[in-house]
Amino acid sequence: MPRIYFKTVDRYVEFAEGEEVNVLRMAIREHCDVPWQCASGNCGTDRLLVEDGAENLDPPRRRERARLGDLVDAGYRLACQTYTRGDVTFSWDPDQVGLDDEPGSGGGSRAGWAGTG
Amino acid sequence: MAELMSHSDFRVALEQAFAGTMAKDASFSRAWAAGKLHKQHFVHWATNHYHYIGPFGDYLGLMYANTPDHARDAKDFLLQNMYEEELSDDRHTDLLIRFAEACGGTRAYVQDRNNAMPFAKGMQGWMYYVSGRENFVVSSAALIVGLESQVPSIYRTQYPTLINEYGFSEWEAEFFDLHITSDEIHGERGYQIVLKYADTPELQQRCLHYVREAADMRFAYTRALYQTYVEPDLGPWVEEDERQPALVG
Ligand code: FES
To answer: Closest ligand 1 atom, CA of A110?
Structure first.
């Protein structure tokens, strides 16, 4: 079975062979603490560094390219915009906030206030 | 008498409840994905879709009012979903109208309720009914698990066709791109709320009933789009692999 390795929290999430899965959906489903806010490619809170397996990801579409800019070339993807069909490894800064938010501004993880626990 | 299912068994039961009647398999969706539709068909689709999902904020607002204070996470999710539909970016219905305009339609045509099929008005009425009258966990199962969580599976097939076969720009087709991903997350959060708060066998069974009903409603509505607008132009829908022997033979 292919699996996503959420390295920052040391968690593996498996999915069925032949499926393409949304990375943020899998992170939320399995409580992997990826920070996020908008789920629609606007805020950049859920940017992840692809450490391995980039070839298994679908190419970034317009919203993701526009939001990440040069970060795409530096190996980043937005979890909410990204689908994978094979093994992949991601890491991130657990304290990161949206790309337009100042650190410490409270613009970070929505999982904290809207999580279902 | 049904027993209380574990979260994992209940999740599988919810997924199976709409597996056989997903709107992506209805004739209009199949013709869309096969590149057979004309721009005028898309104007009709957008018009009907507008009257079906245009009041989504209303439906969520009714569900919000029906959700008790102790289910704070569920209330917050509904509020967040409402905000994202209406305010966080371009209003979702404006993106839908942008697509209709790219197909030759107008805002006035799309917004005129007289241009929608009875099926679309039926969908709208059913959604007002369920969101206004049912327990919040049941309406979450119906509208979010049964309907919203289907959206990525539909648009992930249709979006590339819009760009590659029908020739729309990414800007014109942004409505679809946005919903592929945002509804993945809304759908998943909906599952979590239903799994958490459907905490009696009766509630679980009622959720399953409404997920089936939601899927049936959307399938019938999507099939009616084909019968009403496309069949007069293209004839009854026949799958390519069924069409092939006839062409050869
Ligand atoms: S959560 Fe905002 S860009 Fe993905």
So the answer is: 1
CATH architecture for the domain at B21-234: Up-down Bundle (1.20)
Nearest CA-CA partner of A24 in A16, A34, A14: A34
Query: Domain A3-94 in CATH: superfamily?
Result: Beta-grasp domain (3.10.20.30)
CB atoms A62 and B170 under 8 Å: yes
List A residues 7-26 in contact with B (Cβ-Cβ < 8 A): 20, 22, 24-25
Question: What digits encode the pLDDT tens for the residues B124-153?
Answer: 999 999 999 999 999 999 999 998 888 888
Are residues A116 and B77, on separate chains, in Cβ contact within 8 Å? yes
Give per-residue pLDDT as tens, B181-234.
Answer: 888 888 899 999 999 999 999 999 999 999 999 999 999 999 999 999 999 999
Q: Compute how many other C-beta atoms are within 10 angstroms of the C-beta atom of residue B228.
A: 16
Closest approach atom of ligand 1 to CA A44: 3
Q: How far is CA B242 from its chain centroid?
A: 28
- Tell how far the Cα of B70 is from the centroid of ligand 1, in angstroms: 28
